Here is the input.
Amino acid sequence: MNKNQIDSTQLATLVFTVLSGEKLLQVPSLLAKDVGHDSWIVVLCLFVADAICMCLCLWAVKINLKHRLTFGTILQKTVTRVGKFVVLALFFALFVCRILTLCVSSYKMFATTFDISTDWTLFVALVAIVCYVAICLGFNAIARTSQLLFPLMFLSVLTLLVFPATQVPISQLLPIGEAGVENIAKSAFSRSFWFGDYVVVYFLMEHVQPKNNKLFAPVLTTFAVGALLVVAVNVIFVCLFGSLAQNSAIAISKISLFSVADSSNGRWDWLTLSVWLMSVLVKVVVFFFCAYRCVQEVLGLHFSKTSLPVVLAIALPLLVPLFVSSEDVVAKFVTWCTIPFAIVLYVLPFAMPLLATIANKKEANP
Here is the structure.
């Protein structure tokens, strides 16, 4: 069996796992800074866009089932080597930036919530080792881990939200749309970098095997559940913190304080937060795998063994916080690349079914 092969059920649980990540960490405060209590509308709009793009990508996967071409091969057969290089280079930059922000946010959460401080270099080294081992084992191992953790991660988020939800002053959401359509649209465009997690499907195109001939239903179901949980977190966050939301980083950690307000048994929410943080680690590993595949496809190489130099090359940018503020670097880079990133995230999917059809026809009739 191919060590990277996964079925549609595993893909479904993986989609749920990678959906949250930084969306429950620093993104709620960023959106609150943009549009105040209308931040949940931005999240909802971006998830609708993601759902449409997800459907288009799954359609491309279904078209690709016969010949099982890689994402890079499809691009090369349709938009030439140059187009393939540009698209994969953009995806590589996207994945590295997202890995960096995930690591920084997780590090801050450990420091502020759990009062644990460690050396950044050691932290990055441990992350790189975990990612290297995961790539060696293959994506099937990553997907199985996600499948095993799925019930725990779902229950952990649900547990963290149940009690705070009962204390939400829902009137804080009124008037709905106060920020204005233009500002909401601007925020959705500028913050689209934090969404589009469905792109992992691109790098699994040749490995996904529908289970019981079902591809769309299981994936879209877990996507919808995960999206609703993220929207709920944003609603609860802005309702509880109001105008202070924009200054309250690490949203899920702040919300968890309301879960133990009446508890005399200590910070039991630490346990649920720790379980949820495993989903962040899985997301880092998944994005690391995708960045690794980008390098493979660009170089046109398929290493017989996992390439340590490539893993180190991906991990090296994670040392940026040792020298400068990673938030400033990522913010400036994302500002420069907003349009290119938006194109590969929200324009490319509309072409993918056509590109997959053309590439497969060329493969069948060389």
Observations:
- The chain has a mean pLDDT of 91.
- The CA atoms of residues 1 and 207 lie 11 Å apart.
- The longest strand covers residues 6-7.
- The chain has one domain: 6-364.
